[in-house]
Amino acid sequence: MAPRGRKPKVKNEQESTEFEKNRYIILPDSLTRDKNTDRRLIKLRHPQTSELAIFVYSENDKTLAQMRSLPFSHRSFFKGNEIIPIDRIDFVTLVDPLFLLLPYFIKCSSMFCPLDQILVDEDLSELNNLLMKLSELSNLKQIATKKEVGDLILWQYNEKNTLEWLTPKIDKVAKVLVNQQINVNQNAAISSSFKLSETIIHSTDEQYKRYAYDIISEYLHIDIQKSLLKHLELPEIVECNKRKANENNDVNKKMKHVQVEFDEKPKVEKTVIPKLSAKDKALKKAATGTKSISSFFKKSV
Q: What is the pTM (predicted TM-score) of this model?
């Protein structure tokens, strides 16, 4: 009898409720001042991946923030004399709504269109109303060109305006990195148990600018990233990995070695038939015309 497999453990409602309770949310100060505001959780497409992500939206405060969850099991913190376990930490950070609207404008960049025809999600129609509300939180002229034809207002994506809108953001992030003395050197080892010297902490302006560019690029499509990199006059990073180069050389050597082996003509060895002695010849001659022993055990028809 085959052994029975173990049934998967199904969480009941009480366990799922406890899991939701053990969430630790870190909010910026601007979102903790007024507790009676109309903040709610919504789902919108991430501007880089186009996948649904969780955001915190307030129509009255005109704020939008993204929630990033990080699994953090087997941890806890003290609150007075109480020990509170942590299953997950949620980081909430403010986001400019223009980042989320930018992919929709790029998709309709070939012509001037009304706003309600640009901010349209073909797969999730329930997002259309949210996108129109988000358009009221920011200045659309920073990423698009406005054109009025009678009573009709048309918009078209403007790459030049977009790059000029992104450049001050990168300068602002780079300034924060400098003031906080963040080590942006990729080759440097960072550890709280070691005291870094000033020569190691010091980085060039280009390194800070590139690090800030990498942070902002998390909310940009790959095509805009390339245009922004060129606009900032930052050189492209060329990966120089000696290990990869050696691996490629080893692969090429193996391929050459195999090719040489296949190119070589195979050598055909001649089979040498040993000469029969007089005794072997006599036995061979006596065996001619005789039947094998297995023929005597066949069924007769």
A: 0.66
Distance CA 213, CA 203 (A): 15
144: burial class by Cβ within 10 Å (0-12, 13-18, 19+)?
buried
- Check if the beta carbon of residue 187 is closer than 8 Å to that of residue 14: no
Give the DSSP letter string of 186-232. TTS---TTSPPPHHHH---HHHHHHHHHHHHHTTS-HHHHHHHHHHT
- Each residue's pLDDT tens digit, 259-272: 545 455 555 555 55
β 82-94/63-79 pair status: antiparallel
Residue owning tokens 């000029």: 164
Q: What is the mean pLDDT of the chain?
A: 76
Cβ–Cβ under 8 Å, residues 70 and 88: yes
Of 102-106, 181-185, 194-198, 201-205, which gets the smallest average pLDDT? 194-198
User: Quick check: 131 pLDDT over 90?
Assistant: yes
Tokens 């690029």 belong to: 217
Report yes or no: 128 and 119 within 8 Å, Cβ to Cβ. yes
Judged against a pLDDT cut of 70, whether residue 55 lies above it is answered with yes
According to DSSP, the β-strands at 82-94 and 23-26 are parallel
What tokens does 131 get?
A: 């996108």
- Strand residues in the chain grouped as ranges (E): 23-26, 40-45, 52-58, 63-79, 82-94, 113-114, 144-149, 152-157
**Nearest-angstrom CA–CA distance, 83 and 20:** 16
Contact of 40 with 65, CB cutoff 8 Å: no
Rg (CA), the chain: 36
Q: Measure the CA–CA gap between 178 and 211, rounded to whole angstroms.
A: 11
pLDDT for residue 189: 45
Closest-CA residue to 48 (of 219, 217, 162, 214): 219
